[in-house]
Write a structure and sequence with these properties.
1142 residues; Rossmann fold; PCRA, domain 4; six-stranded parallel sheet; 14% strand
Length: 1142
């Protein structure tokens, strides 16, 4: 057995031992790498505890998302159900789970829980749900009267509170002086201050507990504490440098540094001047900081690389002695490593800069506390709060000035065991809540805390997650409760080739050691448990361009998008059923790929989850322009846009005639000019008159109906519904009108809130596309797994980081918390003098940058570990003028560079041609206009509720000289599928109100059916034929006694009922969403009925056909077994109105 095999055996043995230990009756924190099966371990732990408690409510399991909570609950219930059924066929690792489930069921029987019949007694919830529960139990202590609504879109409230805070300057109060000081510090830039305050309010859970320390504090004592904290951080940073430039190395450098400093003409002003009298090795002490910084300048350049060149400018003249000293210098420096760490010394601030800023800190702290008070008033006025307010109120419900509340004591008595999933994503406020929940616990009182997570997958700093909390809990426990640290090392997801590459690559790029101050996590290798498989691989795809374009140019992005699309097509050609995921750091990195696939690879149907911003969709842009135009008649841009929108579609020539020579009148005024209308083309005049008539009637009714109805009815009458070309257009525009409905009030619309809301909405994924090709951000992919993972855009630039008004850092010095706070650097002292020194704010910001950089390493690790069989890494790079390849700063490629550098070094530049140049010459550009072939006047008295958005797919895409007719053709399978969906929609409507439907009403719906099928992309002849088929089937069913009985009112009836089913497949849980066409209870029996629309003209043996759907109906029946009623299953064939019972 070689060394590698021995190491893997050791890891496997430790893994098995730790999994067994994790079920012991004690408190643990478990590190479980990606694919380690931590959900199964949590399930086993929960079941083990369930067999020991008197009441199931004594156990609380917490996680961070509803999806994760549902998965854990389903996994536990499935385990209990399998045990009750005495399932024998299962994977070996499931045998432990079954034994634990048997013990839990036995305890349920003894204690008469009836846990399978009462699963609500299992307390498995999210952190947010726990906080909401606490505030409901103690509304007075939590400062909530009635429970307010919780919103995840409260940016408008933050801005309102910030404006109210700044408005205090108008009042002669103490708040006036506070606001004045803050404004003066920010050069009287009130808009900047409002934006900074709003941003700080969104993250107030991070600073509110700290800010109180500055209010009314003694400035001298506060200065001593902050000075101690800063000295500690400086000393910690110097320890890393001292490990590189150790005392022996320093002894060798001293004479060289003194030589260089002595040869400089202006010794006092030169960077090396402090080294002139350097006599003793430097220590990791803030008192030596000035000398350390001079030494760092002596060793590294401004770009933080070791010096490669020395001359007389740096104190090394071209003399014999100078040359010898230079050789001695490079002999030493060539032995050093990690110039980046040495260069960080230059980012350390002087202690004096922190002490000078204390008065400003106190003023800004008072301002922030004032803003938080105003925010609470805004929340009360709006009747809604954010999740931070819920969490803070939950803590108030557990502890007040007198100590633990009655609720805390009650919970302390009731809770015996606490389990926390994804512990690496815990935020400081959540950690404080956990600490309060277990405050009275003792190590030997029988109560246990179980935390499980993977610090290498901590990627939610933007949600305030802090990976250092995991390290702190692992090292010191939580509160007074110590935790035993366990580490798992098996990966049950990825095949050996993928696991081997991930281990080798990420051991090179992860930090060498854990570091709580910098949020650094060292790499924990893992082993593969899956057997080798065919075509498992990791492939690096270097796309080298040598044509002058950089990585961010449109051509470079287009080249990469084409490459990725072709790669997907090739993978799909080899295996059409495998699941492929394209994962990116930022949504914008998918824009070119989505465009390329839609334009040139329509056969690659994909689902994009929260990728495309809603306001990037043309149909939504047109609806928004219509909204802005109707509210603001002087908004020239949006008025011109609605004239160019497909429902009107004026040519540029007609637009120029209408408005080209008058830039003062509004477009609406110009539309009333008969002289201008007469000069338009005949087609343009017809289109404009159609638009003018509808808009005039709409403007006349403004304020007389709800905002949504007013805008949507205008959009429909204009023909907006007939301009929907793509399948998702109707869904997207309805999301827009939903937002308008939420924001509209008394005929008014808050456009600031509308713009903010639009930024947070995304086009919905194509639900009809298969889920085996998905486009996701890496954050959205966490917890998922795919056969093949593609990581493109690795060399793209990240978004620039925002700045905060105040930065805070809590530091433990001698186990005592000390706080550092620093105001935003304005580069301008209060006296007006310029300051270029590196400030405390800059230092704290650099710490934040290092934490973010460390998280990017973990983000890349999460992306790579989603892969089961194949991993593809793609990056586009430009060859520099020196012929060098250097990754973009702060890009993921820069992170991964040590592992993939050789792949790029041997890659050849891509062959480029004129055909690859996608940048169009402005002189040859000709706009293409899509519009309805002719305006259709829609009855003004027809309400939007009766208007079905129906697209016209023969939109004209025209220039001034030609028209192109757009036609889409889909296959017969798609037509048959869409016909079935359409039939189900009408069956659902008829079941909802059967008495309102008859044969004649169905006949009147034929045009709407045809329009709906055209909207799905079918040509008009095919849509008409399919609509006729659906209509005939619906009329036959409605006319039959069987159809009438199925659709009539019944007890416990449901149509298109969506339910979740969990099943075990080869020992693993699978969650499936099932939709039941029709179900109800009749005479004490549960009926489950499936609709089938057979092909026109085919009449096979329906009994035989019905049997083909037996398995499907059996799955449906399984969902109702706990109801305890007899179940009858049947298929209703719509074309014959005949019910076949199985």
């Amino acid at each position: 057995m070689n060394q590698r095999e021995t190491k893997q055996t050791d890891l496997d043995e430790r893994d098995a031992l730790n999994r067994a230990r994790a079920l012991a009756h004690a408190s643990f924190i478990v590190e479980a790498p990606a694919g380690a099966g931590k959900t199964e371990l949590l399930t086993q732990r929960y079941l083990k505890l369930l067999a020991t408690v008197k009441e199931p409510e004594e156990i609380i399991a917490l996680t961070f998302t509803n999806k994760a909570a549902a998965e854990m609950r389903n996994r536990i219930l499935l385990s209990l159900e399998n045990a009750e059924r005495q399932t024998t066929e299962m994977a070996p690792h499931k045998l432990v789970t079954r034994e634990l489930a048997n013990a839990a069921l036995k305890q349920s029987s003894i204690q008469q829980w009836n846990i399978l019949q009462q699963p609500s007694r299992l307390r498995i919830m999210t952190m947010d749900a726990l906080c909401s529960s606490l505030t409901r139990q103690m509304p007075l202590l939590s400062k909530f009267g009635g429970q307010p609504a919780v919103s995840d879109d409260t940016e408008a409230h933050y801005l309102e509170a910030a404006r109210l805070t700044i408005a205090q300057i108008a009042h002669e109060t103490d708040e006036h002086d506070t606001v004045t000081t803050a404004l003066r510090y920010l050069d009287n830039n009130s808009e900047k201050l409002i934006a900074l305050l709003a941003r700080m309010l969104a993250m107030r859970d991070q600073w509110l507990p700290l800010a109180g320390q500055f209010q009314g504090a003694d400035i001298e004592q506060l200065s001593k504490n902050t000075e101690a904290a800063l000295k500690y951080l400086i000393a910690e940073a110097l320890k890393d440098v001292l490990a590189i430039v150790n005392p022996v190395t320093q002894d060798a450098l001293m004479p060289l540094a003194r030589f260089a400093a002595s040869n400089l003409s202006d010794q006092e002003a030169h960077d090396f001047a402090p080294l002139l009298d350097w006599q003793a090795p430097l220590k990791d002490d803030a008192e030596d900081l000035l000398l350390w910084q001079a030494l760092a300048k002596f060793l590294v350049t401004q770009s933080k690389t070791f010096r490669k060149k020395l001359d007389v400018r740096y104190g090394f003249p071209a003399t014999t002695e100078g040359k010898q000293k230079k050789e001695d210098y490079f002999a030493i420096i060539n032995q050093l490593e990690n110039s980046e760490i040495v260069g960080r010394v230059l980012s350390l601030p002087a202690i004096a800069s922190l002490l000078d800023s204390q008065p400003v800190i106190q003023a800004l702290t008072r301002l922030l506390m004032l803003a938080a008070t105003h925010l609470w008033a805004v929340f009360q006025s709006a009747g809604e709060v954010d999740f931070v307010a819920i969490a803070q109120s939950a803590q108030l419900a557990l502890e007040n000035e007198q100590g633990a509340t009655d609720l805390a004591l009650k919970l302390d008595y009731k809770i015996s065991h606490l389990l926390i999933d994804e512990f690496q994503d815990t935020s400081p406020v959540q950690m404080r809540l956990i600490a309060k929940l277990i405050e009275g616990w003792q190590p030997d009182d029988g109560r246990t805390l179980f935390c499980v997570g993977d610090p290498m997958q901590s990627i939610y700093r933007f949600r305030k997650a802090d990976v250092s909390l995991f390290l702190q809990a692992a090292n010191f426990g939580i509160g007074h409760l110590p935790l035993t640290r366990l580490q798992l090392s098996r990966n049950n997801r990825s095949h050996p080739t993928v696991v081997k590459w991930i281990n080798q690559a990420f051991q090179q790029v992860f930090p060498l050691r854990d570091d709580m101050h910098h949020g650094a996590i060292s790499y924990r290798p893992f082993t593969a448990t899956r057997a080798p498989a065919a075509e498992e691989s990791v492939v690096v795809h270097p796309l080298i361009i040598d044509n002058g374009d950089d990585e961010e140019s449109p051509d470079s992005k287009h080249i990469e998008a084409c490459y990725v699309a072709q790669l997907i097509a090739e993978i799909r050609q080899k295996d059409a059923h495998q699941k492929i995921a394209v994962l990116v750091r930022s949504r914008s990195h998918l824009r070119e790929l989505v465009t390329e696939i839609r334009r040139n690879h329509p056969q690659l149907a994909f689902q994009a989850v929260e990728i495309e911003h809603l306001n990037d969709r043309q149909t939504v842009q047109d609806a928004l322009s219509l909204t802005r135009a109707l509210y603001h008649r002087a908004d020239r841009v949006h008025w011109l846009n609605i004239l160019r929108a497909p429902w009107c579609g004026l040519t540029l020539a007609d637009l120029h005639i209408l408005a080209g020579d008058d830039h003062h009148s509004t477009i609406w005024q110009l539309m009333q000019s008969q002289e201008r209308l007469a000069r338009l083309s005949d087609d343009g005049r017809t289109r404009l008159m159609h638009l003018r008539t509808i808009l005039a009637q709409s403007l006349a009714t403004q304020g007389r109906m709800p905002v949504r109805r007013w805008l949507e009815s205008t959009w429909l009458r204009l023909g907006g519904g007939k301009c929907l070309v793509e399948v998702g257009d109707n869904r997207d525009v309805q999301v827009f009108f939903d937002l308008v409905e939420r924001l509209g009030f008394n005929g008014h619309l808050d456009f600031t809130a509308l713009e903010s809301g639009m930024q947070k909405l995304y086009a919905r994924p194509d639900i009809e596309a298969p889920d085996n090709l998905q486009f996701l951000t890496i954050h959205k992919s966490k917890g998922l797994e795919f056969d093949t993972v593609i990581l493109p855009a690795l060399n793209r630039k990240p978004r620039h980081a925002d700045h905060d008004l105040v930065l805070w850092q809590e530091v433990l010095v001698n186990q005592q918390p000390h706080l550092i706070a620093a105001p935003l650097t304005t580069r301008k002292e209060i006296s007006g003098k310029k300051s270029s020194a590196f400030t405390t704010y800059d230092f704290l910001k650099s710490l934040e940058t290092q934490r973010n950089d460390n998280e990017i390493v973990r983000l890349l690790y999460v992306a790579a570990t989603r892969s089961e069989r194949q991993l593809h890494l793609i990056a586009t790079m430009k060859v520099s003028q020196k012929g060098e390849l250097k990754p973009t700063s702060k890009s993921m490629l820069e992170v991964l560079w040590p592992a993939v550098q050789m792949d790029f070094a041997v890659a050849k530049p891509l062959a480029t041609s004129a055909s690859q140049n996608t940048t169009m010459d402005i002189a040859s550009f000709q706009p293409r206009l899509q519009r309805l072939s002719s305006p259709e006047i829609i009855a003004i008295n027809q309400s939007p509720e009766t208007q079905k958005p129906a697209p016209i797919l023969n939109l004209n895409s025209i220039s001034d000289t030609q028209a192109i007719h757009v036609t889409d053709q889909l296959g017969p399978q798609a037509l048959y599928r869409h016909s079935g969906i359409l039939a189900h929609l009408y069956m659902e409507m008829m079941a909802a109100e059967l008495t309102a439907w008859n044969i004649e009403k169905l006949q009147q719906c034929l045009p709407a059916m045809q329009a709906w099928l055209r909207q799905q992309g079918h040509a008009t002849p095919m849509a008409k034929q399919a609509a006729a088929t659906v209509l005939q089937a619906l009329q036959t069913t409605l006319a039959s006694k069987t159809g009438q009985w199925v659709l009539s009112h019944h007890e416990s009836a449901g149509s298109e009922l969506s339910l979740m089913q969990t099943t075990a497949l080869e020992g693993d849980m699978q969650v499936r969403n099932l939709i039941i066409d029709r179900t109800f209870v009749e005479d004490g029996e549960r009926w489950i009925i499936d609709y089938k629309l057979t092909d026109l003209g085919e009449h096979p043996d329906f009994n035989v056909t019905a049997q083909l759907h037996m398995n499907q109906l059996e799955r449906y029946a399984g969902l109702f077994k706990t109801e305890g009623l007899p179940i009858r299953k049947a298929v209703l064939f719509l074309t014959l109105g005949e019910l076949v019972e199985l």
